[in-house]
Structure to design on (689 residues):
C-alpha cells in the first residue's frame, strides 16, 4: 500500500466516524498492484462457481434424406436420418450467470474441451437502459404487449437498478466467466453502442488485458435520418479481444474500390491520381480478389422486407455475424453467444458448418430462436447440406434447489419448511397445521404446495382428495412447478363430481425473489390443457390437435375501465385477448381477438415414442469424477412440428402418418407453445396392433 502514517491515521478516523473515504485513498490502497485501478460501487472479484446439471426440454433434429452411408457416416445417423452421436448444439434458457458457471465448472466442460474449446464468443448484451424482456404479439390485426415476467423484471432491475454501477457488476462477472471458457486461440466480440462502449472497453481491458485488445470495429448502417441538433447516430461499436496471440484469424476481403478497372488481359489494375497525374498499377492475382477488410463495416440493418427478418427488436443482420464467424473460427469450431436474442449467431454458425452454444433468459427469445433454427435445419436439408441436431436445455429443478439451498444454508428440514412458507407467502395464503396433504388456506380455499423437485402426480392428488373428503373440504388449489402428464381435464372433472373441486396452478420462478414476493407481484396461473384426436391405421398413427384451453392473465380489465380518460388497449385476461375501447362519453366497447382456440397456438410438436430415450444428466461427485444419473424423465424428441412464421402464419393441425416398426403400447407426447411462448404438454397412450 502506498500509504504514509498520516494517511493511515486519517483513514481510521474517517471509518470510525462513519464517513466516506476520499476517492484518492482507493487508489493508494491498491497502488502496488495496478497502475490504474478500475472501481465502481458494488464491484466484487469473486464470481459464481456453482455447477448445476442441465435439464433437457427438447431434442430437435430434422430427418435427413435416406441415403446409404458407409463407415463412420453410417454410424452417425439412425434409419430415420437423425443424428446418433457427436456434438449436439445447445440452446439454453435461463440466467446466463448460472449457465456460464455450470458450463465452466460442470461435466459439460469436458464436452466443450473435446471440441477444442470455444473458439469464438460474440455477445450483444443490453446497452440501453430502456430495454426489457417485453414483446408484442399481433392477433386479429391488433398488437398486444406481452409484459416481462417477474424473473425477467428482476434481471432488468439487477442490470439497471443502480444505474451504470449495477450494469458493470452484471457484465463484469459474466465476462470473467466467458474468459475462463474461451479457448487459448479464441476471440471475443463485444457489441455495444455509444451509451456503454467506453465502459465495456475498460472492463474488457481489465479482464482480458490491454495487450489482448485487437480492434474497435465500427458497424456503420443507414436508416431514415431525422432532424436534430447533432450528427446522426448511425453506428455501433464492436470490441474485439483475443485470449492470446495464438488467436484464429482468417483475413476477410472487401470489394475493390471504384478506382479499380479491368484491363484487356483480364487482370485488374488500380487507378489513382497523384498530384493530378493518373497512375495505373497492375495488381497481382491475389490483390485482384480484394483488399483486406478494414475496421469500418458498412452492412445494412435488417430491413422490413428481408427474408431473415423476425420482427425481434434487437435482431442483427446475418451478414454481420457471417463476417465475424468466418474471420475468427474455422469449420467444425465451437462458437457461443450468451445473449441469444433472436438466434442470429447460432443460425449463421449452423449455415457455416460451426458448432454452437447460445443462451438467453427470455422465454420468447428462446422460442423465437427454436423456430428459426428448425427453419435452418430444413433449409440445409432441402439443399442436401449437413447439419447438427440441437437440444433445448435449462437448469430446471436444479436452479430451484440452488435458490432454496442458498436461502436455507443447505439445511434440509429448514429448507422444506422455508420452501412451503415461501410459496404460501407468495400466494398470499396462511399456513395451517394438523393436516397431512394440505399446507395453507386462502379465502375459503385450501392450499397444497407441490414438491420442489418432482411433478405433482395423480397419486398425490388422490391423497389430497382423500383428506378433503375426510374433512368435508370442497375446494383446493394445488400449486406446483410441474404436473404429471396424466392429469387431464377429465380426471380433474371426475374429482369435482365426487365433491372436491381441484384447481391446478403453476408456481412461477419469480417466488425466489424476495422483492417480488414482498410487493405482491408474483402471479400463479391455472394449468393450460390441450386435446388431441388419434387416428390409427394399422402400424401408422396421425395426431390431430383439436383444442387448447388457457387461463393466462396479465391485465385487469376492471381497473382499465375505471379510467376517467378515453382508452384503447389490447389486454390479456383469463385466457382471452380483448381490445378494450372507452370513448369520451364513457361508453366501453370490448372486441374479442382470440375468437378461436387455435388463435393461441404458435407451435406444436410430437414425440411419437416418448419413453424411448431416458433423460440422463451428468454430475460431478465429491471426488470430482463425472457420474451419469437418470432423472426419472424421458427426452422429448421432436419428430414432427408445425409452427407459424412471418412468411407463413398458417398451422397444420394434423400430423404426418408416423409408422411404428412393431406392434405394442406406446406413449405419444404432444407439446404446444402458445403465442406467449409458454409450453403445455400432454401424453397419449396408444396401442398399435
Amino acid at each position: 500500500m502506498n500509504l504514509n502514517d498520516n494517511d493511515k491515521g486519517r483513514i481510521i478516523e474517517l471509518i470510525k466516524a462513519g464517513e466516506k473515504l476520499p476517492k484518492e485513498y482507493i487508489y493508494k490502497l491498491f497502488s502496488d498492484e495496478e497502475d490504474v485501478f478500475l472501481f465502481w460501487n458494488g464491484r466484487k472479484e469473486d464470481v459464481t462457481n456453482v455447477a448445476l446439471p442441465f435439464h433437457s426440454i427438447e431434442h430437435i433434429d430434422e430427418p435427413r434424406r435416406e441415403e446409404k452411408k458407409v463407415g463412420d457416416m453410417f454410424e452417425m445417423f439412425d434409419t430415420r436420418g437423425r443424428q446418433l452421436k457427436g456434438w449436439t448444439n445447445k440452446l439454453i434458457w435461463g440466467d446466463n450467470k448460472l449457465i456460464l458457471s455450470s458450463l465452466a465448472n460442470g461435466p459439460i466442460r469436458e464436452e466443450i474441451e473435446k471440441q477444442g474449446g470455444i473458439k469464438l464468443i460474440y455477445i450483444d448484451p443490453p446497452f440501453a437502459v430502456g430495454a426489457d424482456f417485453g414483446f408484442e404479439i399481433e392477433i386479429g390485426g391488433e398488437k398486444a404487449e406481452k409484459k416481462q415476467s417477474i424473473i425477467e423484471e428482476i434481471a432488468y432491475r439487477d442490470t439497471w437498478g443502480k444505474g451504470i454501477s449495477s450494469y458493470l457488476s452484471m457484465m463484469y462477472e459474466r465476462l470473467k466467466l466467458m474468459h475462463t471458457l474461451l479457448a487459448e486461440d479464441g476471440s471475443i466480440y463485444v457489441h455495444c453502442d455509444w451509451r456503454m462502449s467506453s465502459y465495456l472497453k475498460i472492463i474488457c481491458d481489465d479482464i482480458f488485458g490491454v495487450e489482448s485488445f485487437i480492434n474497435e470495429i465500427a458497424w456503420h448502417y443507414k436508416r431514415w435520418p431525422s432532424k436534430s441538433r447533432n450528427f446522426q447516430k448511425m453506428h455501433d461499436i464492436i470490441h474485439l479481444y483475443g485470449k492470446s496471440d495464438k488467436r484464429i484469424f482468417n483475413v476477410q476481403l472487401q470489394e475493390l474500390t471504384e478506382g479499380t478497372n479491368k484491363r484487356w488481359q483480364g487482370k485488374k489494375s488500380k487507378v489513382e491520381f497523384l498530384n493530378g497525374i493518373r497512375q495505373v498499377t497492375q495488381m497481382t492475382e491475389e490483390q485482384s480478389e480484394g483488399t483486406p477488410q478494414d475496421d469500418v463495416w458498412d452492412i445494412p440493418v435488417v430491413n422490413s422486407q428481408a427474408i431473415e427478418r423476425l420482427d425481434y427488436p434487437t435482431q442483427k443482420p446475418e451478414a454481420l455475424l457471417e463476417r465475424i464467424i468466418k474471420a475468427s473460427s474455422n469449420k467444425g469450431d465451437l462458437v457461443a453467444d450468451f445473449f441469444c436474442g433472436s438466434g442470429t449467431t447460432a443460425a449463421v454458425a449452423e449455415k457455416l458448418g460451426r458448432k454452437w452454444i447460445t443462451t438467453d433468459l427470455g422465454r420468447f427469445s428462446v422460442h423465437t430462436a427454436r423456430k428459426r433454427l428448425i427453419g435452418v435445419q430444413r433449409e440445409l436439408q432441402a439443399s442436401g447440406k449437413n447439419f447438427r441436431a440441437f437440444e433445448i436445455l435449462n437448469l430446471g429443478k436444479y436452479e430451484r434447489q440452488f435458490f432454496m439451498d442458498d436461502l436455507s444454508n443447505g439445511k434440509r428440514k429448514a429448507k422444506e419448511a422455508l420452501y412451503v412458507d415461501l410459496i404460501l407467502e407468495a400466494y398470499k395464503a396462511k399456513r395451517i397445521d394438523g393436516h397431512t396433504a394440505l399446507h395453507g388456506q386462502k379465502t375459503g380455499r385450501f392450499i397444497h404446495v407441490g414438491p420442489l423437485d418432482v411433478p405433482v402426480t395423480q397419486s398425490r392428488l388422490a391423497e389430497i382428495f382423500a383428506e378433503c373428503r375426510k374433512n368435508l373440504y370442497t375446494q383446493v388449489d394445488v400449486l406446483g412447478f410441474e404436473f404429471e402428464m396424466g392429469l387431464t381435464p377429465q380426471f380433474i372433472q371426475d374429482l369435482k363430481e365426487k365433491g372436491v373441486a381441484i384447481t391446478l396452478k403453476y408456481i412461477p420462478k419469480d417466488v425466489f425473489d424476495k422483492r417480488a414476493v414482498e410487493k405482491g407481484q408474483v402471479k400463479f396461473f391455472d394449468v393450460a390443457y390441450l386435446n388431441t384426436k388419434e387416428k390409427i391405421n394399422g402400424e401408422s398413427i396421425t395426431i390431430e390437435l383439436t383444442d387448447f384451453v388457457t387461463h393466462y392473465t396479465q391485465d385487469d380489465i376492471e381497473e382499465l375501465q375505471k379510467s376517467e380518460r378515453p382508452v384503447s388497449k389490447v389486454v390479456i385476461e383469463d385466457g382471452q385477448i380483448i381490445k378494450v375501447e372507452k370513448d369520451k362519453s364513457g361508453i366501453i366497447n370490448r372486441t374479442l381477438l382470440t375468437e378461436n382456440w387455435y388463435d393461441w397456438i404458435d407451435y406444436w410438436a410430437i414425440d411419437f415414442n416418448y419413453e424411448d430415450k431416458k433423460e440422463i444428466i451428468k454430475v460431478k461427485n465429491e471426488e470430482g469424477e463425472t457420474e451419469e444419473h437418470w432423472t426419472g424423465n424421458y427426452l422429448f424428441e421432436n419428430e414432427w412440428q408445425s409452427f407459424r412464421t412471418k412468411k407463413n402464419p398458417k398451422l397444420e393441425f394434423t400430423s404426418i402418418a408416423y409408422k411404428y416398426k412393431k406392434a405394442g403400447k406406446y406413449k405419444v407426447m404432444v407439446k404446444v407453445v402458445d403465442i406467449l411462448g409458454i409450453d403445455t404438454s400432454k401424453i397419449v397412450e396408444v396401442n398399435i396392433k
About this structure: The CA atoms of residues 58 and 636 lie 5 Å apart. The chain is about 25% helix and 30% strand.
